[in-house]
Amino acid sequence: MIDRKKGFLHCRGKDIVDGEGNKFQALGFGLGGTFYPEGYMWQVFGGPELPEKFCESPTYIFNGIQEIVGYEWAKKFWDRYLENWTTEEDIKTMAKWGANHIRLPLTYKTLTDKDGSYLESGFDDIERVVSWCRKYGLYVVLDLHAAPGGQNPWHFCDSNGTARLWVEPDRYWAWTINLWREIARRYADDPIILGYDLLNEVILPEGHSTKELRDLYLAITEAIREVDKNHILFIEGDNFARDFTNLEPFDDNMAYSYHMYKYDGPDPELSDIQIFLDLRERYNVPLWNGETGDNNGKWWTNNIKLHLENNIGICMWTHKKITIEYQPYVVRLVPGFKEIAQYIAGRGAKPEAEYAKRSLMEQAEAMATDQCVLHEEFLEGFGWFKSLKKL
To answer: What angle do CA 141, 377, 145 make, to 5 degrees?
Structure first.
């Protein structure tokens, strides 16, 4: 359990520490799919007429399912998927493995209505997961994975193909700023929250500068600090959290969060993180690799060791996907659901409705962790870290 008497985790120079000054080394999981899927996790891959950054978005997927089976059945499936994908038992298991935090991806579409008013059901969903983390002693980073309008043109922020957060700032900046103020207001006094990851994987459109990114970060920070002076702000750079130009420190409790992938590539090396080590040295600010993985078990282990040995927190992406074997749990792909996925992506014929209904519910049940295949080699790095803490 987390000792509330030790206070909030916070930044002190290059380290994250608790209220007693003890260094915190972050190792955990990003819970992709918990509140909404990314198409590739569900084997939805765009065809020639439907590029992936469009058809793999959760809104497009839901609408495609609705077209086949109608709204009521689409929602019935979606609700069951949400119940099964991440459960209390999953959080308990992660803590048992040796994780000490999760990164919880949020979408504005479940937290706000079209007019920007707040949806209590969405905040209830967050609190359900956070309450499990309190129970089992995992810190939580709240990550705005999908910001109003979309901070990039890709499916993983549920964009419609245009990063409207940047091209329509008059409409979307205030919405984003106010949403963060509301999130922070609700969790300002809760030490289970490790911090706030303000924007996931920004990709600025052509003609837009990182100065705009800095300006939005400053406005979000001001709003958060009006209600919450306790929590760490995790700042991601442009270009998939890799470019920190114009993002010199602007708060005394902030850390830089970068992402690192080497799809099917060689083992991670010091050279892969040197630019971020230099950033830390230059500004005396902690580092956290907020998203990394999508590679084999040996790569996961070496990546964990590389980061923790260099005093960098690390959060592995993610705990489960359908058929993809690059994380601990692999979900079985139901044949009928594969046909649905292919139709949604413009790759196949439209399935018959009754057949699709049965397939959807079968797939939703297959998403439950006790129905998944566990690949224990992805846990070796967690075991290594767990053994270090016992020394």
So the answer is: 25
